[in-house]
TrEMBL record:
CDD domains: MPP_Dcr2. Residues 1-19 form the signal peptide. It comes from Panicum miliaceum. It is found in: Secreted. PANTHER family: INACTIVE PURPLE ACID PHOSPHATASE 28-RELATED (PTHR32440:SF2), PHOSPHATASE DCR2-RELATED-RELATED (PTHR32440). GO terms for molecular function: hydrolase activity, acting on ester bonds; metal ion binding. This is Inactive purple acid phosphatase 28.
Amino acid sequence: MAASHLTALVSLLPPCLLALLLLRLATVLDPDPDAAAPRVKAAAPLPLRFRHDGAFKILQVADMHFGNGAATRCRDVAPDGGGARCSDLNTTRFLRRVIEAERPDLIAFTGDNIFGGSATDAAESLLRAISPAMEYKVPWAAILGNHDQESTMTREELMTFMSLMDYSVSQVNPPGFLVHGFGNYHIGVHGPFGSELVNTSLLNLYFLDSGDREVVNRVKTYGWIKESQLVWLRATSLELQKTLLAPALAFFHIPIPEVRGLWYSGFKGQYQEGVACSSVNSGVLGTLVSMGDVKAVLLGHDHLNDFCGNLNGIWFCYGGGFGYHAYGRPHWPRRARVIYSELKKGQRSWMEVESIQTWKLLDDEKLSKIDEQVLWRRSTDDSDHNILSRPGA
């Protein structure tokens, strides 16, 4: 009877807690002083917050498709781009260049971080892929794409592993909610130290698992964001807006069907391949519009698209292909997207977010900066209604 009770208890432990318990157990069972001690995660400073100059910069890294490092060849690279010498190490070099040039406050890895079919060991590939973020001690968040789980770890194991890595602010799923998938979570970016809003989130970041592959009516299609995820998203947004009507950004990998229509309505950037989305429209756009706080959605998945287009007042922006083992196009440089938010300066202190801008960086000799645009700017009407909920307010 005691053994069955123990089995039931262990099955209820969250994967990350169980992993920590196993590490602790190893030290008890092996008292050898020369044995390796469990390693403690190097944590990012939380909460994330705007810098003293009132800015917060996010680097979006989409579709690294990392494999086995130097042994993994590049795809769709011209002979003068490295040829046989080109490998995953080119992806790592690009990430280091961008981190050094932009000094981001957060790196958002938006799926297909590793390419499962080419990754012999998923954990090792992830460690190599994310290593520049950890080396430079930059907080980072990640979601999954449709290829990450094709190696040696499940989607749940991948998100658990990433949540335990150095400087990661990734989460497996939100506490208190039963949601579909793994990697649905919220991160708030607070006001700078010394400001009146130091304890308030001024920019909210929503991360969502858009799935991998599904079968609908016996036809294969891509995954989609499910209703349980949208319920959590709506509830989280509503709760956050009780304190401050702060702008928000959403990050997920697979685009929604409405993005296809941007071909006809206009966009900024390159629209070079068909939008590969699910055949199921689960109402993501309607949910985001009704919430009112999301100003832009950052996507991955289609490597040859790097455009931004507006749907019902919300910008949908591709990151563009980042990784060299991902498909691309010869003489079309790999690229990254930067999202830059600035606060409004008050008479005595920094106030709410005033603007959100974006641009892309190309992996060329000059690390060229292209397609700068404003995604959102606070209007006078927004400021009049953006009041903190205080007693008597």
